[in-house]
Specification:
The protein is mainly beta. It has 1 helix and 9 strands, in the order ββββββββαβ.
Amino acid sequence: MPASDFTLTSPDIPDGTRIPDTFAGQDGALAPRMSVEGVPEGSVELALVCHDPDAPLPHGFTHWTLYGLPPIEGEIAVALGRSGPQDDSGVGYVGAFPPPGHGVHRYYFWVYALSRPVEGEPTRAEFLARYADAVIGQARTVGTFSR
């Protein structure tokens, strides 16, 4: 299946738009709904990652890692996944919260279709290093935010 057939969308954050305040902030932000279409044949699991490459840190800032998601089309069933770590030492989703005056940040929401399940709850870097060979499809959508 062509990679272009695998898509990630969000009814809460249309691609390329500003993230609504409901899904932003250091505390109490809601996790946005995400949907996938065109899940590649042979997928045994989906993984979801949200990353801000514009954060003033050497490797950006990871806002969300979610593993163990069923490889089915439609809205991603977040409750069925295992939350992994994000870069503020917590687990689960942490909203967009760039430094004041730092300009517009891009928040990449990635979904990965995998040929084997993810063990445990790796960090984003650990996941990418350990499972690169298991990625059979990936898709993304991007939101922006500034303060």
